Amino acid sequence: MIKDSLRKVPLFKNLSNDVLKDIASVAKERIYKKGNIIISEGNKSNDIYIIKEGKVKVYKTSSTGKNVILDIKGSGSVLAGTTLFSDSLNPATIMTIEDSLVYTLKNSDLENLIRNNSDLALDFIKILSNELHNSQEKITNIALNDTYVRVAKLLLTLSSKHGIDSNDDNTLKLDLNLTREELASLIGTSRETISRALSQFSKENIIDIKGREIIICNKNKLEEWLK
């Protein structure tokens, strides 16, 4: 049931069953195949999107046609939240990087629910605040840290959101399929630069690289790069 699935979404976890039923009654379930565009930069969104299963990349396109990835989002993420209470256009494009199951809600329906439910309003504010905090952290990382620290922080951030645990708490597999260029754009560097950093981490047995697959073999040692 949609209601039971919505309960697992951070935005809705504190709501009563009655409110969840109201949300489920207006929510639509939609499947997006890998490579589908959910939201296009510069367009107006009339819906808000919540990822139940799958992953997406958020990116902007430069004047030269280059795509710069801003973030990777997965299960439980809310998309297009920043345009909910305004007439602003989508600041970025959102594309699936794997088959994804997404719930959609009309902005007008969610606005009405928020007006009538303080818990939902508070949780939505928390999500937007977290988005702002993450953006500030990323800007700080790019502006103040050297390449190796930026790469280490990127790997740790991605592993916390998209890592698959092993029997060893110090080992994580990144459940992503990103090219070196896509990884580089997440921290504002070049493919060659991030490849050198990954190669160095591999030599130090901090990570293991198999094609696009990255396994963090020594999380503690990777964290030492941030000190």
TrEMBL record:
Domain Cyclic nucleotide-binding: start-end pairs: 11-120
GO CC entries: cytosol
Segments forming a coiled coil: none
Keyword Nucleus: no
UniProt GO molecular function: DNA binding; DNA-binding transcription factor activity
Keywords carried by this UniProt record: DNA-binding, Transcription, Transcription regulation
One Pfam family, short name: cNMP_binding
InterPro entries: cNMP-bd_dom (IPR000595), cNMP-bd_dom_sf (IPR018490), Env_Response_Regulators (IPR050397), HTH_CRP (IPR012318), RmlC-like_jellyroll (IPR014710), Tscrpt_reg_HTH_Crp-type_CS (IPR018335), WH-like_DNA-bd_sf (IPR036388), WH_DNA-bd_sf (IPR036390)
Transmembrane segments: none
SMART domains assigned to the protein according to its UniProt record, in alphabetical order: cNMP, HTH_CRP
Residues of the HTH crp-type domain: 145-220
Claim: Transcription regulation is one of the keywords in the record: yes
Protein name: Transcriptional regulator, Crp/Fnr family
Source species of the chain: Gottschalkia acidurici (strain ATCC 7906 / DSM 604 / BCRC 14475 / CIP 104303 / KCTC 5404 / NCIMB 10678 / 9a)
Origin organism lineage: Bacteria, Bacillati, Bacillota, Tissierellia, Tissierellales
